[in-house]
Amino acid sequence: MPAARSSARGSGARAGAAKGTKIPQVPWREPRPASIVLVSGPEEVLAERAIAGVRDYLRTEDPAVEVSDLRADDYEAGTLFALTSPSLFGEPRLVRVSGVEKCSDAFLTEALKYIEHPQEGATVVLRHTGATVRGKKLLDAIRAGTGDGIEIPCAAVKRDSDRVDFAAGEFKAARKRIQPSALRALVSAFADDLTELAAACQQLIGDVEGDITDDVITRYYGGRVEVSAFVVADTAIAGHHGEALIALRHALASGADPVPMVAAFAMKLRTMARVAGNREPSRQLAQRLGMKDWQVDRARRDLAGWNDRSLGMAIQATARADGEVKGAARDPIFALERMVTVVATRQSYGA
Fold first, then answer.
1. Is-contact 268 302, C-beta < 8 A?
2. Top-confidence residue, 257 or 88
3. Would strands 122-128 and 149-153 be described as parallel, antiparallel, or unpaired?
4. Which of 149, 174, 208, 293 has the most CB atoms lying inside 10 A of its own CB?
């Protein structure tokens, strides 16, 4: 069995290689084992899927595969070699290494030695988020083709179109049909959290018999009004005034409440204000502010084209709208439209 695996792993070793690297670049939806599997990039959902796929592939080959986990940042010398050494009965071994982006010197030294002479029958999966340049020497050595290695890139899913592609891929992989409008509604319902979107897709795949329609999405996730609010907020913050007003009217027609709508704007603007002007690395800043890395990265993307004046103006407009939709004004819809206009145009709106 090990010999057959080695042959399968070696086939097409250059076919998928991206420019600047000598090892194959393997899609995260089509993971396969190799002596060294580098799972790179910030998107944890994709990385988790890829790593689980490597495990499942090995278990299909041999259910007796030994699976071990270790952390590169809390590493005891000799552990990597011990876990990859052949066992008494020769079972295949899978070693999953997390935290390579913050690896210790001991791990870096031993990993560089290991990739030059990987153990037969062992698969070592190295997870590097790309959050820091720590471990770059190891990444460069793997990508240069030292040993039998592949890379599974897990780039951040940032754009709406990327999220649509992700969700469509979930249903395609499960051979499940979903109406285009239902797909868009589902993605809108989980616009800020790919983990929740992935879970929602799997829930629908598992629960629903037949095609997934608009009615199914409404039945399962129609109560996520606050998510429609985030779609409106994202569009306005990006500076798309007309689209933001259309999205606002669509959300209101769908039953959205003005109060959570304003709350969504306030939350995103507060996050932007906390991150603005800070040059700390995302992970360090997120830890200090009690946030997640992706929240810091998202806020920094949202801040493109903003300055202190426009941000302050938007926060004031949102505070005003908050009071008005809670009873301080007769027309909460007008209050929402004025807030959206100030945020999207980054200009004052009347008195």
1. yes
2. 257
3. unpaired
4. 149
Measure CA of the first residue to CA of the last residue in the chain; give whole Å: 77
Contact present, 151 and 16 (Cβ < 8 Å): no
> Can you give the pLDDT at residue 243?
84
Residues with Cβ within 8 Å of 231's Cβ and at least 6 positions away in sequence, in order, are: 188, 191, 247, 251
| Backbone dihedral angles phi then psi of residue 152, each to the nearest 5 degrees | -115, 100
pLDDT averaged over every residue in the chain: 86
Residue pLDDT, tens place only, 80-96: 999 999 877 778 999 99
The pLDDT, as a whole number, for residue 2 is 40
Q: Quick one: tokens of 127? A: 């997870």
Q: Which residues pair with 38 in a beta bridge?
A: 126, 151
Please determine, for residue 46, whether its predicted confidence score (pLDDT) is greater than 80: yes
- Residue 345, classed as helix, strand or coil, is helix
Q: Which two tokens stand for residue 4?
A: 């057959």
Residue 280 to residue 228: CA distance in whole angstroms: 31
Sheet with 122-128, side-by-side order of all strands = 66-71, 93-98, 122-128, 36-40, 149-153
Structural contact between residues 280 and 293, judged by C-beta atoms closer than 8 angstroms: no
DSSP string, 59-78: HHH-TT-EEEEEETTS--TT
Report the chain's C-alpha Rg in angstroms.
24
Tokens matching residue 92:
């295949």
pTM for this prediction? 0.61
Q: At what angle do helices 332-345 and 258-275 cross, to 10 degrees?
A: 30
